[in-house]
Amino acid sequence: ILCAMARQAALKGLEFPGVESVLCVGNVLSSSGKALLENSFKAKVFNLYASTELGYVGLGCPRSGVWTHVDEENYLAELDGEEVIVTDLSNYHMPVIRYRTGDIGELVSGLCGCGREGLRLRIKGRKKDFFENAARERFYACDLDEFLASEKELFTIQLAMRPGSLGLRVRPGG
Predict the structure, then answer these.
(1) Where would you tag: which of 20, 49, 76, 101 has the fewest CB atoms within 10 A of its CB?
(2) Among candidates 26, 113, 29, 92, which has minimal Cα distance to 6?
(3) % pLDDT > 70, the chain
(4) Residue with the larger pLDDT of the pair 156 and 144
(5) How far apart are CA 70 and CA 121, in angstroms?
(6) CA neighbor of 115 nearest in space, from 66, 64, 45, 43
């Protein structure tokens, strides 16, 4: 919603003065969405990966793009296929062991552009929330935002719902 608002504001030449930083929590923020918000708000934009059950697991930095640095002192993050699995190492009152987050993501280890060494996590979207094209390729929230951002003009977005499925048809204008 924030990215859509920023796109509309950009079309009208509006800016959002006085914002120092934007912290995105609970939704996937793609690289184009992050760049759009940084440009619109003239502020640093950070991704925070967290959940109600786990708390904060990872935080982005100005050099990590859409990746978040995993808080490895308090969390063990791993993948089961593409699903993100997290163990909370510091919650002694209600331990969460190998919690299936329901998120699809990627993990990389190594040196970030900021100089920090360690595990980084990029969330693509929710496991059950994706669109498929005719070639059966899956597009998650981060992919969809990139796709919509690449279209100069959208003529129609059509949603088709049937029990157990949701379809999206986009027809470019002009």
Answers:
(1) 20
(2) 29
(3) 85
(4) 144
(5) 7
(6) 64
The tokens of 82 are what?
Answer: 């593409």
Distance in angstroms (rounded) separating the CA atoms of residues 104 and 154: 27
Residue 16, CA distances (Å) to 30, 38, 40 in order: 20, 10, 6
Q: 92 CB contacts (<8 Å, ≥6 apart)?
A: none
71 within 8 A of 89, measured Cβ to Cβ: no
Alpha-helix residue ranges (DSSP H) falling in the chain: 2-11, 31-41, 141-150
| Cα separation, 56 vs 15, whole angstroms | 30
Residues 6+ apart with CB under 8 A from 31: 65, 66, 146
117-134 burial, b at 16+ Cβ within 10 Å, e below that, comes to eebbbbbbbebeebbeee
Reported as a pLDDT band with limits 50, 70 and 90, residue 14 is confident
Q: How far apart are CA 171 and CA 157, in angstroms?
A: 7
Q: For the residues 84-104, what does the mean pLDDT come to?
A: 91
Which band of pLDDT confidence, cut at 50, 70 and 90, is reported for residue 174? very low
Tokens of 163: 């029990």
